[in-house]
Amino acid sequence: MRWKGRRVSSNVEDRRGGGGAKAGGISILGLVVAFVAWKFFGVDPQQAYQATKQVTSHSQVAETQGLDNPTPEQQEAMDFVGTVLADTEDTWTQVFQQQLNSQYVAPKLVMFSGVVNSGCGTAQSAMGPFYCPTDQKVYIDTAFFKDMRQQMGITGEQNTTELSRQDQAGDFAQAYVVAHEVGHHLQTLLGISEQVQKARAQSSEVQGNQLSVRQELQADCFAGIWANHNQQRTQFLEAGDVEEAMDAAHKIGDDYLQKRSTGQVVPDSFTHGSSAQRMQWFQTGLKSGQINDCDTFNQTI
After folding, report:
1. pLDDT tens digits for 74-100?
2. CB burial of residue 43 (10 Å; 0-12, 13-18, 19+)
3. HSE on the CB side for 220, CA within 13 Å?
4. Would you kindly state where each structural domain of the chain is located, as residue ranges?
């Protein structure tokens, strides 16, 4: 993925340095439950936060500041995330104008380390990247990207040259994750998230899960639209990039994660969609580039 040399967004908040978490009475069991709920069963981060809120009610998180002397790796992570966010800003500003005759309002993106305060509660890095509709911010601990590369088969056993090449090769999969979370911001702007929340409040658990799946698949489709239009603007894709995004989508499918975690697959508990569904809807957005083609709520998924 070609990303260096383009505009870097000013909407990035760096909270990776200083401060950190001040724990008092934190339940380790509660954190483990929240981690398992997100990592292996795709539970909505906000639900996981609420589930652990009581057991971590005595914890305090000091707001952290940006890194005073970032390493080259840390600075590159900031530049990469800022560039991808800028790409989403430019893409969706254009798409909103052309397809919706509307003005796009960009989210903020918070980079943190370990733990962070958000409008949706105190978040642990183990929960992965997430979007909080309350404060309209995307939250990312870039250590997630390292974990992601390892999950995709990149280990520390390669030599430095090969590892560097593979790290770069995984950039588009990481950008897809950022674009997916920005997709949830679009759903907030379009009123979709509010409608889903109201519908889930009146639904059974299984029906609520199905609505969650449709919402997540739509965010995947929106990520595909971003890739489509950003490619037209910047020609940023390289050979193998789309395949890497497909591999990432496959490995965060509910069926893949459940099978790996428990050896069983329970479709009624899906909240993000199967591997096949996630790949399908990313490709739908990538091929079409049209918001109307991402209506997962009124189409067979």
Report:
1. 888 899 999 999 999 999 999 999 999
2. buried
3. 29
4. 68-294
Question: pLDDT band at residue 225, thresholds of 50, 70 and 90?
Answer: very high
Structure tokens at 118: 């958000």
- Which residues, at least 6 apart from 69, have a Cβ–Cβ distance to it below 8 Å? none
How far is Cα 276 from Cα 250, in angstroms, rounded to an integer?
Answer: 7
Instruction: Compute φ and ψ for 288, nearest 5 degrees.
Output: -85, -50
**pTM value > 0.85:** no
| Dihedral sign, Cα of residue 201, residue 217, residue 271, residue 178 | negative
Report strand pairing: 108-112 vs 12-15.
Answer: parallel
Spatial CA neighbour of 275 closest among 300, 256, 294, 296: 256
Per-residue burial over 264-277, b if 16 or more Cβ lie within 10 Å, else e, is eeeeeebbbbbbeb
Residue 12 phi, psi dihedral angles, 5° rounding: -100, 130
